[in-house]
Design a protein that fits this description.
By secondary structure, the chain is an all-alpha fold. The chain has one domain. 78% of the residues lie in helices and 0% in strands. It contains 13 helices and no strands. Helix 3 packs across helix 4. The longest helix has 46 residues. The radius of gyration is 24 Å and the shape is globular. It starts with a helix and ends with a helix.
């Protein structure tokens, strides 16, 4: 028979093995969530800009039209604010009326969080409402799923319109992306564009795979699913449907205007038409689906490739993509920091009121 001391040692070894196993699993999950997206974006960016003359960057910044840049930033902030207001409208049918400013702050934080771990923002915004407005996590997450479905529909509609309006340029982009190394279409060898698109699609498929795995775990929690579905079905119960539709269109209009107005920040892109901007906007919107921080890498590739088709020099297209994407990413980060600070003030004021009572 085994002694009690031997049993104790055996139990201790098993606990140690389980602890190490959980630690390794956590490290692997963190690597997949944080390191791999960063690495993917960095590799694509390096490949795109390996021959770029970065001395152009300073001249490009000095030569920018900062008035147009400010207008572009305004539309960027407005798009996030409207998304927050619309979210409040979606929560109302379930009996939750969070404050407008907290809804907007949660959107700011969500986009900033996505810069660190792609797609974690959808969860973080629900956590913010749960913590500051007592909106249950499951219901708010259900409305976020509905939002993403609406975003997909909007992207599809805009894509169809852009492709039909700019069909020749779109087909040239497809041929260049899936032709051979010399730009032909006989498929004899893969070119750089094909490799980047293939890797980006693989990353999207991996993201969907991990999301489905999480959903399968959630499906075991019946109460959670019931509340989750309540959030999804809230769309059909919205009282002010015209306002909801207006805000949905307004969000994407602001997204487009933020991008289109950035054309006027540079002399080399100011002559591009609104239809060209629409196709470029669609390419960038689809590229953001790739799980890299704010679509870094794939977004640059999509916008640059199409700009070259419209006659811009490759160096100018690289400069445009670098400055515009970097400025948009910095804006998201700054809005996230601002929202976090404002929420801390709210939390402190709420605690003071509670203590005074």
């Amino acid at each position: 028979m085994l002694s009690s001391q031997s049993l104790y040692k055996g139990t201790k070894v098993i606990k140690t093995i389980n602890f190490v196993s959980k630690l390794v699993k956590k490290i692997l999950n963190s690597t997949i969530k944080i390191v791999l997206p960063l690495l993917l974006g960095a590799v694509i960016l390096y490949w795109i800009y390996r021959d770029f003359d970065f001395s152009q960057l300073n001249a490009g910044l000095l030569g920018m039209n900062w008035w147009w840049f400010t207008v572009s930033v305004f539309f960027g902030i407005l798009s996030h604010a409207i998304r927050g207001w619309r979210w409040r409208l979606m929560l109302a049918p379930m009996g939750y009326i969070p404050r407008n400013d907290v809804c907007v702050y949660s959107i700011f934080i969500a986009y900033a969080a996505n810069l660190v771990v792609p797609r974690v923002g959808e969860v973080s915004r629900c956590v913010v409402l749960d913590r500051y407005e007592n909106v249950p996590f499951a219901q708010s997450l259900g409305t976020v799923v509905t939002e993403r479905l609406l975003d997909t529909v909007m992207v599809l509609l805009i894509t169809i319109a852009a492709v039909l309006l700019q069909w020749p340029v779109f087909m040239e982009f497809v041929v260049n992306s899936f032709g051979n190394a010399d730009g032909g279409s006989n498929g004899s060898s893969l070119n750089e564009n094909t490799i980047i698109i293939g890797v980006s699609l693989l990353a999207i498929l991996l993201l969907l795979f991990f999301l489905m795995r999480k959903m399968s775990l959630w499906s075991k929690l019946k109460s959670f699913i019931a509340r989750f579905w309540e959030g999804v079905s809230a769309l059909g119960k919205i009282k002010n449907l015209p306002l909801f539709i207006f805000e949905t269109v307004a969000i994407w209009f602001c997204y487009f205007m933020q991008f289109y107005i950035s054309f006027f920040c540079f002399s080399f892109s100011s002559s591009l038409s609104v239809f060209a901007a629409l196709l470029l906007f669609v390419g960038g919107s689809i590229a953001v689906a790739v799980p890299t921080p704010n679509g870094a890498g794939p977004w640059h590739f999509a916008v640059m490739s199409m700009m070259v088709l419209y006659g811009l020099a490759e160096g100018d297209a690289q400069l445009f993509a670098l400055i515009v994407h970097t400025s948009q990413t910095l804006l998201i980060a700054l809005l996230g920091i601002y929202a976090w600070i404002m929420l801390q003030f709210k939390k402190r004021n709420k605690q003071k009121m509670f203590n005074s009572k």
